[in-house]
Amino acid sequence: xxxxxxxxxxxxxxxxxxxxxxxxxxxxxxxxxxxxxxxxxxxxxxxxxxxxxxxxxxxxxxxxxxxxxxxxxxxxxxxxxxxxxxxxxxxxxxxxxxxxxxxxxxxxxxxxxxxxxxxxxxxxxxxxxxxxxxxxxxxxxxxxxxxxxxxxxxxxxxxxxxxxxxxxxxxxxxxxxxxxxxxxxxxxxxxxxxxxxxxxxxxxxxxxxxxxxxxxxxxxxxxxxxxxxxxxxxxxxxxxxxxxxxxxxxxxxxxxxxxxxxxxxxxxxxxxxxxxxxxxxxxxxxxxxxxxxxxxxxxxxxxxxxxxxxxxxxxxxxxxxxxxxxxxxxxxxxxxxxxxxxxxxxxxxxxxxxxxxxxxxxxxxxxxxxxxxxxxxxxxxxxxxxxxxxxxxxxxxxxxxxxxxxxxxxxxxxxxxxxxxxxxxxxxxxxxxxxxxxxxxxxxxxxxxxxxxxxxxxxxxxxxxxxxxxxxxxxxxxxxxxxxxxxxxxxxxxxxxxxxxxxxxxxxxxxxxxxxxxxxxxxxxxxxxxxxxxxxxxxxxxxxxxxxxxxxxxxxxxxxxxxxxxxxxxxxxxxxxxxxxxxxxxxxxxxxxxxxxxxxxxxxxxxxxxxxxxxxxxxxxxxxxxxxxxxxxxxxxxxxxxxxxxxxxxxxxxxxxxxxxxxxxxxxxxxxxxxxxxxxxxxxxxxxxxxxxxxxxxx
Length: 699
Prior knowledge:
single chain, alpha+beta, 8-stranded mixed β-sheet, globular
């Protein structure tokens, strides 16, 4: 097998060109694997690529990487794109602060740093101090370090660390006085301290022994400092249908909450009793049980817990629960559902601050704790408030970020009593936005549904069909795609492009109704919405099909694969990142089983039929001219395993009937949602160089 692998690589290096044009792909032998799905035979000729450590797969992957690197490095204008991106990415940004006692903590990235640094400020207006710098542990960013949780007494810090940002994570504990780590190392994530600062709750994946096998469950644990992780108390465990869980504790330390993610939300309250001697053995009590909805806690005021919930409110309402009545408590509506969607809410200074999406742009409204409206907090314009909002019930202070496609994030501090807002950390960016504007339009999808879309372009743009367009979307899991800033936007605008965000169904832009309209058997609706967005831009003479580039990540990568195979004539370039392309086997890898609530399981005969109908891998047609396609994957992605991209790349390359390239790029020491700053710069340089060349733009 070693000889075969070497032959694959040698054939590629000898046959493939060093510049764009006709591409000769590495040989990919077709196996004879055929599966039976409810009486339907489905071939899977590249099943061998699922074993990415086998000699044959290693040789093929290496050859693909060599081919892709040679192709991309030969593209003209690449160095200029990299230099401009580096300048835009190095402008720095700060995260939303949070308070612990008299200290305010926040993350900020400075020029040349691979990862953000944790800073601390106190109320004396002294200069901010570095509280923890992960770059001292991993200067190149190959170890992803984050999820910082400061203990209530500010003496200790929990941080999470993983190789290449994989989902296999360890929690470490640092003594902030000595700057040294303790012996506490816990396999998990989402640490949450009890008020005594002597231990923390956390979530731990339950996996089988084999590496890369599907996760079998998630457990809730409590770790007492100084004790081995093996003796940690297991509070509760869920099966693979729960993708993750997190914890919260009340500001006074009496209560803790466990909240699950990935299925219909479950929420459990734990009465810890004395905050300085918390009873972590107390039995969890489920709240809002059987309501078939998702629940997100805001905070506590005394014994009252405030929660935003979709129960009987697809666009979300806010309720209050009297915890002294425990499971017998009936929720009391505080802020009822409205036409706008609640995406976040906090309690600060005896006020509820509610972040709404009104036609996908942010609005901040104030209410009393019993639900009386108290006006709005003025925002700088049409754009997006970031998540999370930073607040504590004990102070009237609100921290929030605000950004737009033309404005990098700035951090604001607001006194909710006076509604006076000041800039805490200004936006920083090397970009003159005066020549450009963002407009929101609405277009009709295939079934006539009105879908919103943001278009960022030069002012007074002439609609003559000549402009290159970049369209992105997500459309899944009820996640919202708001009009936010990215360094890619000014780069693309300066190249003469139009940047478009389509708010397709499957997302949460209009609440759970919008989500449900693009999931399970209705998933095709998401693809129809995206295709209709591209057709609208052509009809309105912004562009022509050969000048449209499209991009999506994760569920958005699935979107790219689906529209690529359904409408290859409509796009000039496709970049799909970390997509799940094999919808008949996705549930067999790592956390994939938890996604069946979004997509349906191919083990069910009804779901199999609609999954097979759009699964990108199974809808590639031989003899088709597919547009230039760049598939992005990460070597440490254990959420959407890169085998999806390997099999899809081999299938597309075998079917391609024209000279348009189909390339596979694999990020090193990166994962599903993490890459070092250098790797991110390299990946985006490759992506934009590929798009520029594919659309025939001048370098």
